[in-house]
Amino acid sequence: MSRYLSFNLLLAAFVAAIAVIPQAGFADEASDVRVMSFNIRFGTARDGENHWDNRCDFVVETIKAFQPDLLGTQETLKFQRDFLAKHLPEYEVLGVGRDDGKDAGEMMALYYRRDRFEQLDAGHFWLSETPEVIGSKSWDSSLPRMVTWVKLKDRKAAEAAPIMFFNAHFDHRGAEARHQSSLLVRKRAAAVAGGCRIVVTGDFNAGESSDPYKAMFGEVGGTDSALVDSFRVTHPDATPDDGTFSGFKAAETKGARIDWIGVSRNWIVRRADIDRTERDGRTPSDHFPVTAVLGNE
Asked: Is the overall model pTM greater than 0.70, yes or no?
């Protein structure tokens, strides 16, 4: 078999496997859903000139510039959750602390436009072998990690399936914890895939060559994932500048793409990008936000 034929067979198989069709260059439609995932860096960190007090307005302005319908934030402490809620009054917010399920510890806070969406259900689970146990951790996780989720009816697409929106933050040290966390999120997504459109945002502390990435988006046990990586749908070729950890430096675009927006195959991915917003070489957080614009089939 010629190399040309082999390449075309592989390309055809790839296209057939990915049901989500990128629509780069197409105008947004009124019913499109704009999604942003943003690790905002916990506000008590000793970051000197990059301390939260010096950049909190920049964070808000970055969010407003994109105008997400759905926003997932990570490393969000209670006062940061409330600050964003105050300055983004058009959004409903959900978020509890990972330590006690109330106010203690970082939150995987999520925000959605209240005039567009009707909340049908919501909750939280912990990334552990006992996900319903508040504050639990397992495997080699260094800290409790969790997911906040909401099920929404979209008033702009009343006939479409509800949206199940998950927002996560995986452990930064435990490789096995990240892998198992990915399998758990994948399992939860698969459980609702038949009746919902799915969006998963998060800081996954893992790049594309990692086991967590493969567990989220690849074939496991002969079964395809319910999710695809929205960024790779619209940017099929990896580049050295796909990194999403900035360390507050706009020029730091190298490294792994550890922030993802996963979506179910019943979306049309119109665009997906890494938001490189900066001022005088500084970024609003130590992660670049990532975004996607999703259309209904």
From this structure: yes
